[in-house]
Specification:
Length: about 180
């Protein structure tokens, strides 16, 4: 029996639509305990007109941290690119346009990106997707590139299947 992916994603989004549960989820992923008075604001993109983008969960913690979490039952190697597009839209909503052109330095929340995997294919407990893994190779044009790209995004992929990353699942009961 196959599972409707949209249904599964909407259940995940619905389950974690409460700031207290998001605080618990972030604490479980990071192995920390956030005080209950730390404000959590949900800023998930929903059916944005631009490219029909929407993400599973996006939230801000204490105005200092933006966390984007995607729930996947299949591994998508393009997830770092999707998360880059999501964070750009979230920041666009967060930042006042006229501040971009000010002479004053802006301060924006620190971003973190997570993919929670619970599919049927075998997958490591913890891995990283990098945006740079998707870049074309300029060496193929004869252009020497011995340095890292000037743009990078890393997303931590965490396998939450039964028997995997049990410490995280124990700290956040809803993941089970």
């Amino acid at each position: 029996m196959s599972v409707n992916r949209n249904y599964k994603d909407s259940v995940f989004t619905w389950l974690f639509s409460d700031p207290d549960l998001l605080r618990e989820l972030y604490g479980a992923i990071g192995g920390i305990t956030l005080p209950p008075d730390v404000q959590v604001s949900i800023n998930t993109l929903e059916n944005v007109l631009y490219m029909d983008l929407y993400n599973d969960i996006s939230f801000e913690i204490g105005g200092k941290l933006i966390v984007l979490v995607e729930h996947q039952s299949t591994i998508n190697p393009n997830m770092a690119l999707r998360l880059l597009l999501y964070i750009a839209r979230v920041l666009e909503k967060t930042v006042k346009r006229k501040s971009l052109y000010s002479k004053r330095r802006m301060s924006i929340p620190w971003p973190e990106f997570y993919v929670l995997y619970n599919g049927q294919e075998s997958y490591p407990d913890d891995t990283i997707f990098r945006l740079s893994d998707l870049f074309e190779k300029p060496e193929e044009l004869g252009i020497s590139k011995n340095i890292r790209p000037l743009l990078e995004l890393e997303a931590r992929v965490i396998n939450i299947n039964e028997g995997r990353n049990e410490a995280i699942v124990k700290r956040c009961k809803k993941l089970a």
